[in-house]
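Figure 3 (text version): structure tokens given as input.
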């Protein structure tokens, strides 16, 4: 019997795909406490306005909000605390090289479970200008119209 692979996203940063050009993505583990994991499994994590920061050879996620676990009482932590990402040193150096260039930053795209562990899909991104966003919306609308026309044609 084969195992079914499912990496269902527990939290997504949809706004990031609209606001940034995604250059490269990497999967990273995240250092959490037990009540944070329980809260994430309930879907109470928010990646909006969060970003990655490299400090002294380690990567941290800032402004990621994980709501306190209801039954966690004294074990709950600050919802906006910095959380360390678990990556190999060579991966950290590679990402550091990207972010040292002007205009590039690290943004988490999604949180998901993989083999019972919470993983982060971290992306190296470059910001879009307003006209780039408008072009992307126009392109998306044109593609949707083409698909609609094709569907009507083959009915």
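Below: residues designed for each position.
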């Amino acid at each position: 019997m084969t195992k079914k692979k499912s990496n269902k996203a527990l939290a997504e940063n949809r706004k990031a795909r609209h606001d940034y050009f995604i250059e490269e993505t990497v999967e990273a583990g995240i250092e959490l406490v037990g009540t944070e994991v329980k809260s994430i499994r309930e879907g109470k994590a928010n990646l909006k306005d969060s970003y990655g920061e490299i400090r002294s050879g380690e990567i941290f996620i800032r402004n990621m909000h994980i709501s306190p676990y209801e039954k966690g009482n004294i074990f709950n932590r600050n919802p906006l605390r910095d959380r360390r990402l678990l990556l190999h040193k060579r991966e950290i150096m590679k990402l550091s090289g990207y972010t040292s260039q002007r205009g590039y930053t690290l943004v988490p795209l999604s949180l998901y479970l993989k083999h019972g562990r919470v993983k982060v899909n971290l992306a190296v991104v470059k910001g879009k200008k307003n006209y780039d966003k408008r072009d992307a919306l126009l392109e998306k609308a044109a593609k949707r119209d083409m698909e609609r026309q094709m569907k009507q044609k083959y009915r």
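The mean pLDDT is 87.
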